[in-house]
Description:
Layout: H1 2-10, H2 21-37, E1 51-53, E2 64-70, H3 72-75, H4 86-98, E3 102-106, H5 117-125, E4 134-138, H6 141-145, H7 150-166, E5 170-174, H8 189-210, E6 214-216, H9 223-228, H10 230-233, H11 243-259, E7 277-280, H12 281-290, E8 295-298, E9 303-307, H13 341-347
Parallel strand pairs: 2-3, 2-4, 4-5, 5-6
Antiparallel strand pairs: 1-3, 6-8, 7-9, 8-9
Helix pairs in contact: 1-7, 1-8, 4-11, 5-7, 7-8, 8-12
Amino acid sequence: xxxxxxxxxxxxxxxxxxxxxxxxxxxxxxxxxxxxxxxxxxxxxxxxxxxxxxxxxxxxxxxxxxxxxxxxxxxxxxxxxxxxxxxxxxxxxxxxxxxxxxxxxxxxxxxxxxxxxxxxxxxxxxxxxxxxxxxxxxxxxxxxxxxxxxxxxxxxxxxxxxxxxxxxxxxxxxxxxxxxxxxxxxxxxxxxxxxxxxxxxxxxxxxxxxxxxxxxxxxxxxxxxxxxxxxxxxxxxxxxxxxxxxxxxxxxxxxxxxxxxxxxxxxxxxxxxxxxxxxxxxxxxxxxxxxxxxxxxxxxxxxxxxxxxxxxxxxxxxxxxxxxxxxxxxxxxxxxxxxxxxxxxxxxxxxxxxxxxxxxxxxxxxxx
Length: 368
């Protein structure tokens, strides 16, 4: 199905139905119930996190330019501090790994679907002197909830990836999250939401990899945490992640973000002990959609690398330094208190290895 969706997007195919007409009536009651419960709280307007991170690393090297595109998840809706947004966390992490300042520009729009990516890409590329070195796109949830045809959704995403790659930017796509993890969604709607989300995520992976991007599956990355601590990992509206949830997602994206720039200590060589493999891109996309945190990188067509990079602790995000001439005003609030021990433990991978341990060190990522 994912291959058909991606092919339809590439060759102008029409919509591919994901829901039989007979099932619609059965699910209507569940849909209405979910609508009454999801979004019951008021999600604050996402704080602006644009600015320079890692100012302590200022030196002869030019700052890296990081662009963030997508929907409310990329914008960080649901948290009140800029340092809690995915953009701030990723910029701080990239600065710590590269030991260079990072200029963040976030053009993500709450409520956006994939057809808004054209506008967002145009904003990022409007000034050729500020073309990002790397971009992160997080999109797809609103496409599912607003029933955008999957082929149209993937077509818009692949066009955005192609434009950014043509401009010289590396691209990492965080694929559609698993909407079946939303607490107020019950069966059978939960099963349907999971199936549709995974199909779209797999199709996004195929399209993005074929355009030279890399993908990281968000999927049910937060599923176990949602089930154990739904009030902690969902925001006040029961739909958008909380600060803890965004940090967990950012931790999964950071290794690929650094690797695409050649700045991650692990190479792209496959590690059989971590169930990494080289597979046809459609098969790799399907497997990645089923296991959150999985990276898919294009190899020689039609092959792709399926990787499970080790996750590291995130540095504490600090207040971005204002860049009035290029990035606008900095946020006004004080940001990014250091995380406590229990919070750090949530960021360790299953091997419980902090950054640098495999290299004979025992320190964490330096905070900015």
